[in-house]
Amino acid sequence: MEYVNLGRTGVKVSRICLGCMSYGIPPAGPQRPGSNAWSLNEEQSQAFFRQALDAGINFFDTANVYATGDSERVLGRFLKANARREDTVVATKVNAVMRDGPNGGGLSRKEIFFELDESLKRLGMDYVDLYQIHRWDKMTPIEETLQALDDAVRAGKVRYIGASSMWAWQFSKAQYTSEKHGWAKFATMQPHYNLLYREEEREMLPLCLDQGVGVLPWSPLARGRLARPWNAEATKRSESDGYAKNLYAKTAAADKGVVERLAQVADARAVPMAQVALAWLLSKPAITAPIVGATKLHHLEDAVAAVALKLTAEEIKSLEEPYVPHPVLGLS
Predict the structure, then answer these.
(1) How far apart are CA 161 and CA 184, in angstroms?
(2) Measured between alpha carbons, how far is 192 from 253 in angstroms, rounded to an integer?
């Protein structure tokens, strides 16, 4: 495993981050958007946490809304029993609706303080290494959100803060506002970025590279579309993942050429398609660590192998050549 600094911070993270959206079973009650039909229970999840640690992965990403909090619970319990807290980098998120009522979600000061404490209880931790806003909250002034996050850092409950998919002007505004007031600035950005969706190359990635912000792409394999041939049999997740259909259904005609080119490069290398797709991401200078989900053990094997797979300039050019511009997707 290779390790790099998380943006301009001094903390070192593995080049692969284990995404934990697939782990944990939601408790009984209203099912939130982060609850998925393909989720693995606590016993099933442990094999993936163990595999990640054995592979040298020290970076774990979850969110309060994943499995309505159970993802945080199962991750926290495993790490407490199997790893030293100081050796792991744990990230979680806030914004999504967690409760019924007018203040059940969002990025108000009230909600951030409440949800941070709830996340820490579920994780069984005194602090979280990276606390991220889960998209932009149009209903809350960004100054309120940023000051609340700064107070969480000053209170010792959060080490660093991060953001996720938004317009580049919004991210720039947030960073400027924090600098103006002397508040903690976002150390990381989680954008929607992969071989099938490269619109972040226009503004967000150059901004992050210029400002030293660590980039942690979500959906690096396009919800599995970059891990199997175009006409491969559907998986349980692909059949039930409504969000993926929203992201990629309208661009299928354009995406087919990219997937077929990826298959050609992978065949020539005699490696799985997922390895090549992740190696392409890791070749980009702005990228810190893709957030990789895994529900089969070979998923993590491919991700770890991708760190050592170095693509040639010709291969990168070949992979990128079929891409056509896409509408902006993934901001909500």
Answers:
(1) 7
(2) 19
The H helix count followed by the E strand count for the chain is: 12, 10
Cα 92 to chain centroid distance, Å, stands at 10
Residue 33, pLDDT score = 64
d(C-alpha 75, C-alpha 68), whole Å: 13
Q: Catalytic residue numbers?
A: 66
Give dist(CA 132, CA 147) in Å, integer. Answer: 14
Contact 132, 161 (CB under 8 A): yes
Q: Which percentage of the chain shows pLDDT scores above 90?
A: 84
Residue 49 CB coordination number (10 Å): 23
pTM for the structure as a whole: 0.93
- Residues contacting residue 29 through CB under 8 Å, at least 6 positions apart: 68
Domain 3-320, CATH 3.20.20.100 — does that match? yes
pLDDT digits (tens, 9 = 90+) for 179-212: 999 999 999 999 999 999 999 999 999 999 999 9
CB atoms under 10 Å from CB of 303, counted, come to: 26
